[in-house]
Amino acid sequence: MNKYLLWGCISLSSVSNAYAELPQEFGKLELKLNTRYWNDEGTAHPTLANPSPSSSEYEQSALGLELNYQSPYLWDWLGVDGSLYAVTKLFDSGKPSAQLLEVENNGKLDQNFAAFGQLYLKAKLGDKGEIKLGRQLHDSLLLKSTNNRAVPDTFSGASGQFQLNDQLQTYIAYYDRWKPRSMDSFEKLVTENDERIDYVGLLGAKYQYKNWSVNAEYLNSKDYLKKYGAIAQYKLPLHGLV
Fold first, then answer.
1. Cα–Cα nearest to 85, from 182, 155, 192
2. What is the sign, positive or negative, of the torsion defined by CA atoms of 158, 216, 145, 104?
3. Interatomic CA distance for residues 118 and 152, integer angstroms
4. How many whole angstroms from its chain centre is CA 211?
5. Within the chain, which residues score under 50 in pLDDT?
6. Is 13 helix (H, G, I), strand (E, B) or coil?
7. Per-residue pLDDT, 8
């Protein structure tokens, strides 16, 4: 937890409009405020560590802040983007649960945290692709950064997108650490039973032709999981039918 960083984030919110009006050559600065409220009663999934979980009830709310910066491309191919995330608890009751903030060793919900959720180097590959190295969001068919909490979770590694032609795009990603949405640090990938996962890698492609589009993806997590997914869509024109 870094309280000085947290309050620095909050103080920046008062001057966000001034930053947004900077000349385009300095990049783009975006401020997001997210208020989340959870009220739930239920039983957790059984695990090896806790095969017979008891039911619990909790209520909690938190304010999340995202300060997202997108840099211009130096020499038209190289840039650095970053995001500062901060979360502060508004209130909670019932049994503490790590939905918005972590549960501390004393059994109480953490008060706040701040962290650099994104910080990556981006490089254009001409007009046909881009690669990113570092901490980043991910959104694909089989792996997604969640956005229904105070701040999203992010991954650390490398990713790339490549436009092969007007219809076909491919993408790849490799991650070996992640920052959960309720924590201020990047952690090793683990299973529900706290078993180490070395990495998560994926390869996918998107194809679009007229009203048809197809997205296929393969995800591999060493010694843990392999997944395949595909979606086919057809956009039905409604012009003249209504």
1. 182
2. negative
3. 10
4. 30
5. 1-19, 21
6. helix
7. 43
